[in-house]
Write a structure and sequence with these properties.
By secondary structure, this protein is of the alpha/beta class. Helices cover 31% and strands 29% of the residues. It has 2 domains: 86 residues, no CATH class; 35 residues, no CATH class.
Amino acid sequence: MLNGDVINVDDTPVRSSERLEYDEDEPETAKRTTFSAYVRTYSNETTTVLTVNPHKDDEGVKRDGILPQFHGIVAQDFEAKFLKYGILTALCCAHLLRELKGLLALFLVPWAAGMIELLQEMIAHKNKV
């Protein structure tokens, strides 16, 4: 995975009744609620690696030990913590479309409609090819 050109990375929140904090030996048990934890997915064409972290932060990325060693393109959903890794950043089109739709619906940004159309045409062309 580390020798590839592109690595995809994404965080997914999960709920848990126990959480092991960084540098702790024993998990903490939730009393009246559940904890948030984060499953981080690192993937390319052939491999997927899942890690679990108690927080959605850069400390977890460093502890995972994958992105700090990666020197290619990091494809992600525009989280600031991922921007400092790799040599380039590629943004996930699904997330980009969501952002553009939000700009159009909430803030009436006129150019967002044209960008949505362009992105959808690009995706359709890629899928056709």
